[in-house]
Structure formats: structure tokens, C-alpha cells
User: What shape does this take?
Amino acid sequence: MLDPQSRWAQYGEKPDFAGLLSFAGAPYTEDPAELAGADVAIVGAPMDDLVSDRPGARFGPRAIRAASCPPGPHLEAKIDAFAELRIVDYGDAAVVPADPQRSHAAIGQTVGEVLAAGALPIVLGGDHSIAEPDVRACAGSAGPVGLIHFDAHTDTGQEVFGAARSHGTPMYRLINQGHIDPARYVQIGLRGYWPTEKEFLWQRERGITSFFMHDVRQRGVAEVVRETISIVGNEPTFLSVDVDVLDPAYAPGTGTPEPGGMTAGDLLWACLTIATEVSLAGMDVVEVIPTGIGSSDITALVAERIVREALTGLALRRRRGASEMA
Ligand SMILES: [Mn+2]
Assistant: This one.
């Protein structure tokens, strides 16, 4: 295992801009044997072959890693996820440019290796089509998982421009394949002009819950998140965060931006709360198209903090579980 912090050990932390690029300077490995004992593994899924509009999300994983800040206590939650949990950067899945099928297979395999080691996968996209292999791997043989899905769009299209495999169709495909329990599937942040009533009818027939932006505005994010947590219950649930759920003011670098979205503060709080309260089966953060270099990129920066809030929530959940056992 490579420790990107080792040369800076006397200072306690590595400068963000220096050394091997790993998530938050976490130990880096591509060897499945070295995952033993890990609680969480970060996996990059750098592919964007299946977008309907702007490409560039293949650069997301690198930019999110570059936007990392060093480990340390979360000022408000008062806990350091990197001290509480063993977090490893497992590198990128071996995607193949212009071959989405092989890229999806590689993502599924890499996420499967994380799960086989007993660790929780957090996948950095990539376009949203990567949810198909990563949710499928997390559902695995255990049967369907719940899904909390932050997005401007439902991604339940049967096709987009006639293409069945697209960043607009993963949730439709996963439900049809039996990997998501529609009664435990909640969408948050919907707005704009896609999809059509046909897709919403299909969703309602399956009992999928949809919170639109007017719900977030009128009822408040705290109430929407509270209701979401009660719908998914205690069973394993996947958290999928498309950064286009954010208003483009907070995440301008994304494949299909839609004005009128959530604030970064609301989304970060929601991710922290969900990771604390829900039994997560896995997580992804997708559709990040970096527009700048390193930590100057707004979208990569907020995507990195989405993961950090979730890690802090997992650490709080671990500590709470330990105190309940005591
Ligand atoms: Mn999406």
C-alpha cells in the first residue's frame, strides 16, 4: 500500500497540491488483497461515453481527488472520518475509451472487489450510466437495495435518442433488472423539462417517491430528508448523487445543468445526515466536469465535500453503534 503522506509524516499532513494524487491523501492500492480490513474504498469510474449533452465527466475522478483537503475533524460534527474509519483509495476502474460495455464491466468488477473485502464502495464518476454497474454490484446476490437519488432528472428513461444504455436510463434498467426496490426508491431535486409524463406514470405505477424542487423549497430540506429516511427504512440503501441536483451556481461543470437547484449547504447537510442515519450499501457522485485546475474548480470541490460529509456521517454512525453496544 502506498502512503502519500509518509514524506510529510513529521508535519502530520501532506499539502493538498503535492505528492501522489489520492483521495484526501488516503493510502492507495490497486491490489484487492490490500483491501482487507478497509471500511471504505474510493473507486474512480472515469468514463463519459454515454452522455446526451456535454462530455468531460471522465476527468471527474482526478479533479475530485485534486480538490481534496487533508484529513481532520469536521468542525461541526466534531469527528475525523479518517481517524474513525480505515479509508483506502482503490484507484480507477480499468475503463476502455469508446467501449462503454467493457467500461461498465470493469466498474462492476472493481466495485465487486471492494464489496468482497467487506468495505463500502464510494464511486467517483463518470457520467450517470456508471450507476448501472455500481448499484448492480452492491445489490449483488442480497437482492434489491433501496435508492436515495439526488438529481435534476429521474434517469428512468427507457431510451435517450433511441439509446437504451445512456446516462438518462440507469434507474429504469436497474429497476427492470430487479436491483432496486421501487418502494424504497426516493428521488430528490427534480426540475426542468425532462422526462415526460410517460416516465412519471411508469414511476408512479411502481411506487417510486419523487421530491421536486418545489418540495425542497416549500417543505424544507430537513423535512424532505426525514421523510426519505423513513421511506428507505433500515435495509441496505444506495446513495447516488448527480451534482446537477445542485444549482449551476454551485456546480457549473456538469453534463446537463439545470437552473433552480439545491444549494451546496443543503446537499452537504443531507449527505451527512443520510450517511449517519441510513444503512448505506454504497455511494456514487457523478456528472462532475471539472472546469478548472485542482481545488480552484467549484464543481470538483463540492463533489469532494459531498463524499467527505458522507464519510463523516459513516464515522458518526460507527461511533454511535459502538456506544450503543457499550
Ligand atoms: Mn443523473
